[in-house]
Amino acid sequence: MPRDPLPRDFLDAALAVAHTAADAAAGEIEAIYRRDTRVEVEWKADATPVTIADRRAERAIREVIGAAFPDHAIYGEEEGGADTAAAAEFLWLVDPLDGTRAFVRGYPMFSTQIALRARGELVLGVSHAPLFGESAWAVRGGGAHINGEAVNVGSAETLARAQLSFGNLKTLAADTSRWQRLGGLLLDAERTRGYGDFYHYHLLARGAVDAVIESDVNILDIAALVVIVREAGGVFTDLDGGAITLETRSVLASCPGLHTQLLEALRG
Q1: What is the largest CA-CA distance in the chain?
Q2: Which tens digits make up the pLDDT trace of 180-198?
Q3: Which of 8, 139, 210, 253 could form a disulfide with 162 if both were Cys (CB 3.0 to 4.6 A apart)?
């Protein structure tokens, strides 16, 4: 039997909390980013970098969400929670500093990603990049917004008129058969770029890019962006056309008129 839909006032309250949490994280991140001294970097077991900014930002987010929703679970990039994530009725998915490499190198292509998964479905997303000057958000059924303006994906229906953006080319190239098929897409598309991280999803949501192809992601990187792109009218799956889950590792996101074509091209 289907469950009752989430009340709109609950979603509005959760969105307000997500914005507050993202602002709190931004305060921690900016204070460290503006320092003249070089930020110390540690390397995690998965060969990804982490800094004090990542950790302080996640603690700030957890404090805000925990105060508002003490019975909700939180799964964060730095402080964990994956072991209880699948069973949680209400689960916040948090990447406090997505784009740590950019942060360390001193350019502002990084963001805070906060999403809410309720009863197994992603229903809310905030993608906040204040130093870059852009913030996107969406709630299920409420459309997508960037810097306060409603946005929608584009209307491209052929690769010859499509602009594609690719993520980590190194990991895409590791699958040699798929890499060859990606080469065909490069030749057929009107234009290709690699904007990366949060930014190419924001571009997709507002119709400036028509598709994003990416591998080597985790759900914390993309959960908020899934909601934003879908609420902007886009389609968001993994590279095999599968549903987005807590185990998702790749992305094929696009405007509706291209998704099937891209999926078929990638399958060969």
Answers
A1: 58
A2: 777 778 888 888 888 878 9
A3: 210
